[in-house]
Design brief:
The complex is a heterodimer of chains A (about 80) and B (about 475). The longest helix of chain A has 18 residues. Chain A contains 2 helices and 2 strands, in the order ααββ. Chain A has about 80 residues and is mainly α. Chain B is α/β, with parallel strands linked by helices and about 475 residues long. Chain B has a single domain, classed as Amidase signature (AS) domain (Amidase signature (AS) enzymes). Helix content of chain B is about 40%, strand content about 15%. In chain B, strands 1-3-2-4-6-5-10-11-9-7-8 form an 11-stranded mixed β-sheet, sandwiched between helices. In chain B, helix 8 links the parallel strand 7 and strand 8. In chain B, helix 9 packs across helix 11. The longest helix of chain B is centred in the C-terminal third of the chain and has 24 residues. The radius of gyration of chain B is 22 Å and the shape is globular. The chains are: A mainly alpha (about 80), B alpha/beta (about 475). At the A-B interface, helix 1 and helix 2 of A face helix 9, helix 10, helix 11, helix 12 and helix 13 of B.
Chain lengths: ~80, ~475
Amino acid sequence: MMNKKEVKHIAQLARLGMTPREEERFAKELSSVLKYVGKLKEVDVSKTEAVSHPFKVENVMRVDEATKDKKKLIEGFLQVKSVF
Amino acid sequence: MNLASLTITQAHDGLVKKEFSALELARAFLDEIEKSDKSIFAFLTLTPDLALFQAKKIDDLISQGNSIPLLAGIPAAIKDNILVENMRCTAASKILENYTAPYSATVIKKLEKHGSIILGKTNLDEFAMGASTENSAFGPTKNPRNLSRVPGGSSGGSAAAVAGNLAVYALGSDTGGSIRQPASFCGVVGLKPTYGAVSRYGLIAMASSLDQIGPLAKTVEDARIVFDAIRGRDHFDSTSIEPEVKNLKFKIKNLRVGVPKEYFIKGMEKGVEKAVKNAINKLEEAGAKIVEVSLPHCTDYALAAYYILMSSEVSANLARYDGIKYGYSEARNPKHEIRNLIDVYLQSRKNGLGHEVRRRIMLGTYALSSGYYEAYYLRAQKVRAKIIEDFANAFKKADVIATPVAPTTAFKLGDKTKDPLSMYLADIFVTAVNLAGLPGLSLPCGKSSDLPVGLQFIGKHFEDNFILELGEFFEKL
């Protein structure tokens, strides 16, 4: 359940301006949605791992051209021409 | 011949046989839009000059004796959250009212390569958030089957354009049912492809782990033609995949159709239940094996998890609309009372974003905020794993799953706008498919009180073609 004080706090975090009347409306509507999603507490997830995606995915990265030439690497740092 | 009622294959035949020109075909649709779109309001932007210019090019190709792709010269409507270069793209939001797309989405580039013609951009719920297209900042779309009813949403403009013969086919996007539910309400075919089957590059992001672009069309065959044209790996979208081509020979004999017992709920419209059960009986009579499956987490729990995860992703994706980088800014309002930078953010987002969009940003920010993250976001992510597991178990017993698309037919305009939760419940049978990344096909299967009812086929990952083949088979029964 969300009261007006919480609505104000969340609105500030989300950078959303709102009137006092809207604060009241959001408190009411969000409380009813939160009551519905409270159902999630009924599911036993004690042995379940969280997922953020429908499949297992890995980052796709291009070939690292800069560190390809091992001779330019000194202790893992890339040697470049001095700037100054 | 009424050119506006043709399917893709019929229109293609007519063009090739020179029964009519691409220019005549495009004009027929522009006339139809002129005549009926005042009452339907499917389109936010019309591009007649571009459409006629594109059509002329196809006519030139045909007159030179060239063979043309299936989609060449076929007039389409594009949901207004998909970018087309140099065309206004609003996402039906005031904050993007005057935004012009600087580049085209990959799906648009692909359609253009096939020679398809773009008639304009269609209405949607603001930023694709809603189930009725009533959340558009520019006014609601009406259902062409009955103008007192909603077309569904959020791709309501696209579904209405196809159902009202204002386009041969349309593109929509589906984050939690936004192609399938309006297809069902308007009596057309809609495909939500497997997550990753179609590139999302150039789609205005709503919830990135759920969004997919897909076709709305008059027949399953047409939906397949469009899907074939737009799918495939795109290096601009790292989550897009070129799947291995599986040689699945479709045979109705002994095809195991899973029917989840949890999908026929109390409070469901009787006529909808009857039409869907009839459709399943027809498949059984044709030789399919009907098996009961169980998807215990895929209705109520899926909808609850969906609202947490989607809203959380929304709150992050929509942070970019800050009154500085894009579109509407309160700082340009001559009567503004801005004192500092934070006022620009607060006031631009207050005046530029609609109520439903702000409600979801609030819910997402709350679910991700310190003290609530574990109770809401993390728990919802775990329930998402349960949903994926449910489907994996069901697919051990069944090759495909058949369900209703929505618990009701198209409801009246204004019926659910007062109570957000009742609107959310319209998506109870469709959100689990997005959470699991599966393909879902919505196709008409009869009527209830004279309004269309939709049947949903859910397939395994990257078996989009398999459910399309089953859909084509079902259409002929």
